[in-house]
Design brief:
Length: 196
């Protein structure tokens, strides 16, 4: 019974990107571009990125749809490209966001590709792992630099900094839990493996 709840039946996705042809790079580029453009668009309408977490959606989707390699690459390149294009996320929090997003994409892909978990369980596992990676990176930064930054400013306590991030991001977490499984289901239904 637990197997039926957690493990998915044979499926079209993830359509694992092996980076042996140009299509793999195109999919990765498109997901990175969407992960950069969407937060920029949110900021144009004065919607806080740390509240709605739009970049996270594309990183998690990359791992869930195309495996751990794509998830990791989108997770690494999206915040770097966003910073290069728009200066967001600010340099003070870029390292911790880079670690958090890379772990989201990597773990989502591993749970889906290697362990064949259903989307919701892979998504939840990736979200927990990403938050733990965020905490670890904030702790390391605190030890090395002696202070920690959160989206609302300087924090004295690493645990408080992570708590502020999670408290501020609960609408984005809810959006991810509601939208990502639907997006993956739609991709599965509409593609039937034709993408690759």
């Amino acid at each position: 019974m637990i197997n039926g709840i957690a493990i998915a039946k044979p499926q079209t996705f993830p359509a694992v990107l092996m980076y042996t042809d140009i299509r793999s790079y195109v999919f990765t580029f498109v997901l990175v571009a969407l992960a950069v453009f969407t937060p920029w668009a949110f900021h144009q309408f004065h919607l806080a990125g740390p509240t709605f977490l739009p970049m996270h959606i594309f990183v998690l989707a990359a791992g869930l749809l195309f495996g751990w390699r794509a998830g990791l690459l989108v997770g690494l390149f999206a915040p770097l490209a966003s910073y290069a294009v728009s200066g967001v996320p600010v340099l003070a929090i870029l390292p911790q966001i880079l670690v958090e997003l890379a772990v989201y994409g990597l773990v989502a892909g591993i749970l889906r590709e290697e362990l064949n978990l259903r989307v919701i369980w892979a998504l939840l596992g990736a979200m927990v792992a990403g938050r733990l990676a965020l905490l670890l990176s904030v702790l390391v930064i605190h030890v090395v630099v002696g202070r920690v930054f959160s989206p609302i400013g300087l924090e004295a306590n690493p645990f408080l900094a992570v708590w502020v991030v999670m408290r501020q991001g609960w609408p984005g977490i809810a959006i991810q839990l509601a939208s990502i499984p639907v997006l993956i289901w739609l991709a599965t239904k509409t593609s039937s493996g034709r993408w690759l």
